[in-house]
Fold this sequence. Notes:
Layout: H1 9-29, E1 33-39, E2 47-51, H2 66-76, E3 84-90, E4 93-103, E5 109-118, H3 123-128, H4 149-165, H5 175-186, H6 194-202, H7 206-224
Antiparallel strand pairs: 1-2, 1-5, 3-4, 4-5
Helix pairs in contact: 4-5, 4-6, 5-7, 6-7
Amino acid sequence: MAKYLTLTENDRMILDSYKVTMNGLSQYLGEGYELILHSLEDLEHSVIKIINGHYTGRVEGAPITDLALTMLDNIRQKKEPEALCYFNKKNGNTLKSATIPILGENRRIIGLLCINFHMSLSFSSFLAQFTPNSSDSSAGIMETFSDNVEDLISAALEDTKTRILADSSISSSNKNKEIISLLYKKGIFNMKDSVLKVAAGLGISKNTVYLHLRNLEKQTASDTGNGTAVK
């Protein structure tokens, strides 16, 4: 193997961590995107992970491209490494591409994450990837965006109260217990002063909240061996 760089163990761990990132990006972006992870340790076999490689016919172990080398040289000429975005062509088709440097120990560039959007993808196929359908289990997920932790806790509490109070299958005496249980599962009690804020929002004592949390933690510890820290 003709080495271009000698990577440390930490460098390799950093590169490996991008493989999980690529899987997530692929699920989010959809089939029109080709994702390639290059290690600069061996330019002749630089591709260590590729998703949707059928667009260019590449597989793991493929060499780096001349364009990627050019992009790498351009990145190194800048004072601070930054991603480069550009258009290029493959087999007559236009690609919108990005080359993102990956920094290892001592901030040296150890790899590249390259993204190619193949613009030959039909518009209907592209649009379908960003439209939820009835079979998508994540279609009903709601996320709270807040400027501060207090608002986050309050929003989560109000949303949970609305859901639980509207559920006629839960008895009145168990409503607060179910609200606390759901907030616990959401991880709200990892936030500082969350017990006090939830207690005030429910009109109960903090000791009552702690009692429910201790029972939940015992159940969690029994099931998984882990508990949730109460703040």
